């Protein structure tokens, strides 16, 4: 959807106008969030924007049909997001869980609320100051679940730009935890484990 969105006619006619409008709004929300995250790291508000974290975003639409035996399957297996940040819009069906201290915790839907997930790339450049969120979706029998995820990364094509722990965050007491890598190399690591394992482990020092 950004920075070079496809022609509107390529979107489904049922949601064409609202999808284009939503993309503009979610980009604005992303700008505010990245400013706050930059400040939380002790950096200038525009720092994460300046290094490309807001350079591109894409949408992932998920439809989970109702399952008559939800206890025997998963809607979406456990995974981390391969981006800097994800803004998730979900309906009221529920099913999202996050892993916290080795326990799966329900994330009940709140009407009108958005869910913000830290992705692997933000964990890498923040040197673990921010941690990527491992999550999954349980199947439900009460009805279909629909969600729309907006993933912020660099340009949609895998980038050869090099990323590593931000030098402003490093010191003798806080050495880098990860090697420098390109988005392309990281995505290759992510694909090699199918999102089922922590792809960042391939880039640990």
Automatic annotation (TrEMBL):
Alphabetized InterPro entries for the sequence: IPNS-like_FE2OG_OXY, IPNS-like_sf, Oxoglu/Fe-dep_dioxygenase_dom
Gene3D superfamilies xref list: B-lactam Antibiotic, Isopenicillin N Synthase, Chain
Name of one Pfam family that matches: 2OG-FeII_Oxy
Keyword field: Iron, Metal-binding, Oxidoreductase
Fe2OG dioxygenase domain boundaries: 55-155
PROSITE patterns: FE2OG_OXY
Gene Ontology MF: a single term: dioxygenase activity
Keyword hit for Oxidoreductase: yes
Name of the featured protein: Fe2OG dioxygenase domain-containing protein
Record organism: Gossypium aridum
